[in-house]
UniProtKB/TrEMBL annotation:
One of its GO terms (cellular component) is ATP-binding cassette (ABC) transporter complex. Transmembrane segments: none annotated. Residues 75-446 form the Solute-binding protein family domain. Keywords: Signal, Transport. Coiled coil: none annotated. SUPFAM superfamilies: Periplasmic binding protein-like II (SSF53850). InterPro entries: Peptide/Ni-bd, SBP_5, SBP_5_dom. It is found in: Cell envelope. It comes from Methanosarcina horonobensis HB-1 = JCM 15518. One of its GO terms (molecular function) is peptide transmembrane transporter activity. One of its GO terms (biological process) is peptide transport. This is Oligopeptide ABC transporter, periplasmic oligopeptide-binding protein OppA.
Length: 523
């Protein structure tokens, strides 16, 4: 396990070191986008291609598409579908004339194999695929899916980029095996994987000839730059063409936005998907198992000040577990957490935690009120936010110890419940509204054993998942809000920063999407 204690001084030293390395090495080399009339877009991202849904969206199609309102719609692979009245049988009509990158046909055989593989292979733990009882071929371009029981979110799940990327049956070993492991990247998307070096780079070439008589990009070169400040430096130096689009986490430091916007050669755009940055709380054991303490720390820090001073006002503060603007979360309107440090102190007093020593940290039964806050590496704005929370909590007598961990190590600690506070997020469309409910807050379905759980919430979640009704989701989220299960921080605006010569970039409908096929580079 790699772990380090975090201090602002260490952060500055790290940034300086990374900057020196980039300067000395030339980082990734100057881009050569238009050599020999071949347009290559150089994209920087924080992690390996195989772990990034966004970059895979140039290689794979999703079974169903999704619109900007988060509603499933027909797409490249499926033209239409019908659902039986008992919500157990679905008929999908497939588009014709589509091939995977290796020439395998997209038809009823490959479509039926894909959904069967999802229900029996590596994706079988997804709730939607667990519900599948049988998949059969009706004719060459039609399949029928039968569920074990009604599942209101089934169609929605088929439009999720994270779970429903359609792979070729020849991309697993053994080929066409229902439980085969993926061994190659073969999809129906606009780009093929030409070369891949794990944790370093990936090269893509357009699968079909570019329309627009060569004006659109022919190739994508993906470079892994883990440090968010280094990626900004690479963009400003002209070493990469675009940053911030290859990940649904915060990969561009918000405080760098004004500086980039003042650069005449860089364009900065942002898009909200209602995906909140949150701190999940250990509601199972330790001090935060007391709801009074969970409420106190939620009321004890100023979110408005945080956004203005640390995030250059590039994001909106979040006061509820998910955005109340969604129809399925309308019950949260009027229940937002407000900044009230005096009430926070009173709640801590009522819980028996009182200031006893000169350090101002509260104690109870001879034990100081100290919380361990795990911050997984990879979130661009997480370090400064952690220090801010630490400072705000001290004002109400709560000591916060920040533990920055490599993401895999942090995940292991999370699964063991070895934390009081854990930086995470609320998911986004299309994972919302189901994602946090099934992944975190149901007592047996998810992988967050220390999150808030009880029988009442389980029942509310199960009802919402079964019916898919807005009012049922809204009731479940209200329960989570009233239990102070997490600390909402801010709306994670997705930032795209790119060179002025890049034309045609648009944000996709979903935070997990990315379509670079419409991009061109001005000579």
């Amino acid at each position: 396990m790699k772990r380090k204690s975090f201090t602002p001084l260490k952060l500055l030293a790290l940034c300086f070191l990374v900057g020196c390395i980039i300067t000395a090495s030339g980082c990734v080399g100057k881009s050569a986008q238009t050599d020999d009339n071949v347009q290559t877009l150089i994209v920087a991202g924080p992690a390996d291609f195989d772990s990034r849904v966004e970059m895979k969206m140039n290689v794979y199609d999703v079974f169903l598409d999704i619109n900007a309102n988060g509603k499933p719609i027909p797409g490249h692979l499926v033209s239409s579908w019908n659902e039986s009245d008992d919500e157990l049988t679905y008929i999908f009509n497939l588009n014709k004339g589509i091939e995977f990158h290796d020439g395998t046909q997209w038809n009823a055989s490959s479509a039926a194999w894909f959904l069967t593989w999802c229900s029996q292979g590596p994706r079988k733990n997804d709730i939607a695929f667990l519900k599948i009882s049988n998949v059969s071929e009706v004719d060459e371009h039609t399949i029928q899916v039968t569920l074990k029981e009604p599942y209101g979110a089934f169609i929605k799940s088929l439009s999720s980029e994270s779970t429903s990327q359609v792979i070729a049956p020849t991309s697993v070993e053994p080929s066409w095996s229902n439980d085969g492991e993926i061994v190659s990247f073969i999809g129906t998307g606009k780009f093929e994987v030409e070369n891949y070096v794990k944790a370093q780079s990936a090269e893509f070439v357009r699968h079909d000839p570019a329309s627009g008589e060569g004006m659109l990009i022919d190739r994508i070169s993906y470079r892994v730059i883990p440090d968010s400040y280094a990626s900004v430096s690479a963009l400003r130096a002209g070493d990469v063409d675009i940053i911030g689009v290859a990940d649904h986490h915060s990969t561009v430091p918000y405080e760098q936005i004004p500086q980039m916007m003042s650069d005449p050669d860089i364009i900065v755009e942002k898009q909200s998907y209602g995906r909140y940055q949150v701190v999940e709380l250990n509601c199972n054991e330790g001090p935060l198992s007391d709801i009074r303490l969970r409420e106190a720390i939620n009321l004890g820090f100023d979110r408005d000040k945080m956004v203005k001073e640390l995030l250059a006002s590039a994001a909106e503060p979040a006061y509820s577990v998910v955005s109340p603007t969604y129809p399925w979360a309308s019950s949260l309107a009027g229940t937002e957490y407000t900044y009230d440090p005096e009430k926070a102190k009173n709640l801590l007093d009522q819980a028996g935690w009182v200031v006893a020593g000169a350090d101002g940290i509260r104690e109870k039964d001879g034990k100081k009120l100290t919380l361990t806050y795990i911050v997984p590496q990879g979130e661009a704005n997480s370090d400064s936010i952690a220090v801010y929370i630490q400072s705000e909590m001290k004002k109400i007598g709560v000591e916060v110890k920040i533990l920055v961990l490599e993401s895999g190590a942090a995940g292991e600690e999370r699964k063991k419940g070895n934390y009081d506070m854990y930086l995470h997020h609320s998911s986004g469309v299309p994972s919302l509204p189901e994602g946090p409910l099934t992944g975190k807050y149901h007592s047996t379905w998810g992988s967050w054993p220390a999150s808030y759980h009880d029988a009442e919430l389980d029942q509310l979640i199960e009802k919402a998942i079964a019916t898919g009704a807005d009012e049922d989701y809204s009731a479940a989220y209200l329960c989570i809000q009233e239990k102070y299960a997490c600390m909402p921080l801010y709306d994670i605006e997705k930032i795209a920063a790119y060179k002025k010569s890049v034309k045609g970039f648009t944000f996709p409908a979903s935070i997990y999407g990315l379509d670079l096929s419409t991009v061109s580079i001005e000579p």
